[in-house]
Amino acid sequence: MQHGKYRFIVGFLAAPMAIYALFVIWPFIQSIYYSFTDWTGLSPEFKMVGFKNFERLFSDEIFWKSLQHSLLFVLLLPLVTLGLALFFAFMLNVGGRHRKESAISGVRGSSFYKIAYFFPQVLSIAIVSLLFAFAYNPNSGAINSALQAVGLDSVQPEWLGDPDLALWCVMAVLVWSTVGFFVVLFSAGMASIPKDFYEAALLDGASRVTTFFRITLPLLWDTVQSGWVYMGILALGAESFAVVHIMTVGPGGPDYSTTVLPLLVYQKAFRDGQAAYATTIGVALLVVTLAFAAVVMRLGRRERLEY
Q: What is the pTM of this model?
C-alpha cells in the first residue's frame, strides 16, 4: 500500500501548486521587486532606487491617513458585523418562544428572515454603493427626505460631503452588505449544535444570555474566528476599495477623509503613473493584512471543543 505513495501525492499536487505559485506567489514577489524601482507602470525601462520609495512612504501624510482609516475599518467592521450576525443568528435559531414539542426553537418565519438578511449578498457591491450614494444625497436622498417627512427639517446632514461623517457612512454600507452572509453562516453552525445542550442548560436555570456565552459561542468559536479573518481581509481589500471609490467625493474625499490603502494604491498606479510607489503601498498593505490575520489567529487560539 505504501509503494509509489509519494509519487502519487506529488502527481496530484504538482499542477495545483504550480498554478498557485504562478498566479499568487509570483505577483507578490514581483510587487516587492518593483517597490525598489522607479517604474512608472508604462515604460519598459526602469532602474533600482533602493529604499527611496519606502522613505517616501514614511513621510507621506496621505499614506498615514489612509493607514489610519484602513486600521479603523479592520478593527471596527469585523467587531460590529460579526456581533450583529451572531445576535441575529442566535435569535433566529434559539430566540423563539417555548413550544410544547421543544424547549428550544427559533422565531417563526426564520427561513424568510435568513433570505432577507442574505439578499444584499445577491447584489453586486457596485450596485449597493450606487444605491446608498443616492440615499445619502443631501438634497434629494431617501435619508434626508425621511428626516424631513417626520419633521426633522433642521437635521439635514451632508453625509458623504461631511469629512466627519463620510467614513462612518461608508462603514455602515459595508456592515449592511456583509452582515447577512455571516447570519446564514452562523445559523448553519448553530443548527448543528444539539438542542439537548440548550434544554439541559434551561432546566438548570440558565438564561438565554448565559446559554449564548456558555454554549453557543464556545462551540461556534472556530467559525467566528474564520469569519473574523475573512471580514478583516474584506475590510482591507476589494470591498472597502469599491465602496469608497464609487460613493465618495474625489474619490477618497472630502479632504482624504475616506481614503483607504487599496484606493491609494489604485490612484498612485493608474491616476498618477507611479506604479513603483503604488507597489510599495501594496507591500505595506500586505504586511498589515498578514499582521491582522496572525494576531486574530494567535489571540483567538483556544482548546477545540467537540460535541
A: 0.86
Cell, residue 108: 417563526
Each residue's pLDDT expressed in tens, for the chain with a length of 307 residues: 566 677 777 878 888 899 999 998 998 899 899 999 988 888 788 889 889 999 999 999 999 999 999 999 999 999 999 999 999 888 888 766 665 555 566 677 777 888 888 888 888 889 999 999 999 988 888 898 888 888 887 788 889 988 999 999 999 999 999 999 999 899 888 888 887 887 787 777 777 788 888 888 888 888 888 889 888 888 888 889 999 999 998 888 888 999 999 999 999 998 888 999 999 999 999 999 989 988 888 887 766 555 5
Name the burial class of residue 167, with classes exposed (0-12), middle (13-18) and buried (19+) by CB atoms within 10 angstroms of its CB. buried
